[in-house]
Amino acid sequence: MAPLIELNHVRHAYATASGPVPVLDGLDLSVNEGGFCAVVGPSGCGKSTLTRLIAGLLIPDAGEVFLHGDRVRGPRSTVGMAFQNPVLLEWRTILQNVLLPLEIVPGALKGAAAIDRARSLLSLVGLEGFEDKRPSELSGGMRQRASLCRALVHQPEVLILDEPFGALDAFTREDLWQTMHEVKEKEPFTGILITHDLRESLFLGDQVVVLSGRPAHTQFVLDNTRSHRPTLDDLYTPEAAERLAILRHQIEIAQGRIPQEATT
Amino acid sequence: MSPTLRKILVPTIAVIIFLILWEALVWAMGWPNYKMASPSDLMPAYSRYWELFLVMGWQTLWRTILGLLLAIAVGIALGMVMGFSRTMRDALYPLLVGFNAIPKATVVPIVALMFVGAHDFNTVLIAFMISFFPIAVSVSIGLSTLEPEYRDILRALGASQTTIFWKIALPKTLPEFFGALKVSVTLAFIGTNLMEIVSPHGRGLGALFDSGKTNSDYPLMFAVLIALAVLGIFLYYIVVALERVFAGWAERQAA
Q1: What topology is assigned to A1-76+205-264 in CATH?
Q2: What pLDDT, in 10s, does the model give residues A70-113?
Q3: What one-character-per-residue DSSP string does A213-257 give?
Q4: A55 vs B156: CB contact, 8 Å cut-off?
Q5: Which residue among A85, A101, A104 places its CB closest to the CB of B149?
Q6: B100 and B162, same domain (yes or no)
Q7: Which one, of A191, A178, A123, lies nearest residue A151 by Cα?
Q8: Least CB-CB distance to B156: which of A81, A89, A136?
Q9: What is the pLDDT of residue B236?
Q10: Are the CB atoms for A2 and A69 separated by under 8 Å?
C-alpha cells in the first residue's frame, strides 16, 4: 500500500533580504492511511514549514510531496488544519465557525445536513450546548476543541495539527490528548502532529519523527505502534520511559548538544 | 429601574444638570448675553427662527452625510489598497499624513476659488477631505494586521482571495472601521461648517451662525452651536446603532 502522505528529499529555503535561508534539506516522511505521525525537533527547525508544504500552501524548492500518490501543487480541500492559535472567527458562533470549511469546499454538505454534521462533531469533543456561544465566551481548551471540529468537518483525508495544544495548561492538554484518540476512533483520519512535547508525541503518534536542526532533515524515526488505545497511565510505564529517553537523546543531537557519533 | 429606562434617564438628567449649571454660572457672573448667552436666552432664538433652523439644519445634515459617505467609500478603498500591498502602504502613508496635517481651514478658500459658485459641491468636498483619513488608516491597519493563520485556514481549502476578503478580512476589520467612523462623523461636521461660515452662499447652520454674528444676535449664535451639537449627537448614535448591528460581536459582554 502506498503511503497517504509522502515526502521525498524535500528541500526548501525562505527568501530574505540577505539571501535565501534554507529551512528544510533532505526531509523524508511517510505516513500510511490512518496513521498518526508526530514530528518533533528543536525550535525553529522548520516544522511549521513542513505543515505548509503538506497543505500545499508552499511548494518545495526541490523534492516531492505526495498525497495519495498525487504530487501536491497547491492547496486542496482534502486537508484540515488546526494551529496553536485556534483562530476562531469572533463574529461567528461556535457552530458557524465549524461550518466555515463547508461554505468553501465545493460539493460539501449544505443546509441541514451540514448543521447536523457540525453538531455531531461538537458533541463528540464535548461541546454540546455551546453551539450558539461566541468564541470569546469559551475557555482556551474549548476553543481548541472547536478549532479541531472545524478542521474535521469536511472529512479531510489529512489532518494537520501545528502545535494545537502548545498554549494550554497541562491538565487541559491531557484532556485533549484523550479527546484526540476518541475522535480518531469515530472519525478516522490520517494525521500529522507538530509538537514540542515529547510525551505528547508518544501518546498520540504511532510514529515519531525527529527532525535535525536547521536546515532540517529526517534524523530519526521511532516506531511507536501500539496494540491498544493508550491511556495516560501508559505514559508512566518503563517502556514509555525508555522511548522517551531515546527521543530525548535524539533531540539533544538535533540541538547540537552532543555529537552525531554518540549514536550507535 | 429597567435598563432601557436607565439608559435614557441617566443622560437626560446629565443634560439637565449641565443646563442648570450653565444658567447658574451666567447668572452668578452677571454676564450680558453678548459675552455668554444662557440657556434661557436660547429658547426665544429657537422659537423666532425655528423655520430657518429646520431648513439650514437639513442643509448642513445632508451635506455632512454625503461628505461622510464619500469619505467611507474613498477611505475603505485607500485602506484596502494600503492594507493588501506593502509597497502602496509605504508609498501612500507619507502623502496621506501630509495631507491630513494641512489645516482644512486653509484649504477652504482654495476650494472655494477653485470651484466658484459650486457651494454644495465645495461643502461636501471639505466634509469629505477632513474625515476620510481615520477611515483609511483604520481599514489599512485592520487588514495588514490580519494574522497569517486566518488566511491559511481558508487558503488551505482552496479559497480565493475574494472569498478570504469577504469571509474574514472584512468582518475582522469592522470594529476598527466603526471606531474610526465615530471620529469621522464629528470631523465631517467641522468640515461642513467651515465651508458654510466662510462661503457667502447663506446656506446651512454655519451661515446662520455667520448672520448671527453680523447682526450681533448673540443668543442666535449660541443657539446654532447647540443645534450643531444635537445634530452631531444624532449622527453619532446612528453610527453606534450600525456598529451594534454589524460589529456587535466585538463588544465585551457585561460581567
Answers
A1: Rossmann fold (3.40.50)
A2: 888 888 888 899 988 888 998 999 999 999 999 888 877 888 88
A3: SSSB-EEEEEE---SS---GGGGGSHHHHHHHHHHHHHHHHHTTS
A4: yes
A5: A85
A6: yes
A7: A191
A8: A81
A9: 93
A10: yes
